[in-house]
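We modelled the chain as a single entity of 300 amino acids. Its sequence is:
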Amino acid sequence: SLSAGLDLPGRFLFATLTLMTLIAILVFIEEAVYIYRKIPSSKRSIIIWINAAAPVISTTSCIGMWVPRSTMFTDFTAGIFFAIVIHKFLMMMIKECGGQKVLLRRFENGHFSISTGPCCCCCLCLPRVSITRQTLFWLKLGTFQFAVFRPVLIFLSIVLWTNGNYVLYKLSPKGPALWINCVTGALTLFALWAVGIMFRKVRILLKCKNIIPKFALYQFIVILNHLQTTIINILATQKIIPSAPPLSSTARGSYIAQQLLIMEMFLITVISRVVYRRKYHDLEPPECVAEEPGDKNQTP
């Protein structure tokens, strides 16, 4: 096995990264107990799901590091979990505004700006959309579709992989991997776009609830878990990352990505504990939010 062939520095690195993963899990468990005791039941499960994103990714990366052959399954597990977290983050912003009815009442005459990233950040000519029950439904559908179709695509990938038709790093137009990745990428962009539209509207309203640091942590997880891993895998596929026996270029690229994710998710877990716990004291007053500029005539 890989761990049996490690030298002393390699074993020390493995032990350190494993310890960081265990600490991240313990920090999350302690935070989950705190949330369960202190947070109203309407928000409890959503906040626990969001806080679990970094520890889960760290754990799957650690398993993939120790058992290289499990990399495909650990990556898929992390992908499914984070697809659900994206939907939960949108729902958390709605809950923090008091729920859908209160949000609609507060932004009665407001509009969503849809010229935001990652899909339409350069399309400044797009019209503003009225905030109604229907537009909120479409935003929630934008994240919910990713939470539903991402597991379906992953299940299809595993079925094709067991039959030898799906090879993760061979993106040929004749193979299914390219098309599955393209569809997954499109669904991801739509989900992130929906979250971006909602955040742009409520970021000032929820400033006293630390929504900006929370959104920054969420964005870091997206970038590190998707963009960073994709870039490293592309470099490994093109042999820019050299092989190091017994690891091939692609295996070494996956190995590097997993080690980086463990360290990064450990830091995000610790920072999330500080950010989310600090916010809970501000939730006691029912209206601790300020009017958003330009919406002064709206119902409080």
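As a brief sanity check on the tokenised model: The first helix runs from residue 8 to 38. The two ends are 62 Å apart (CA to CA).
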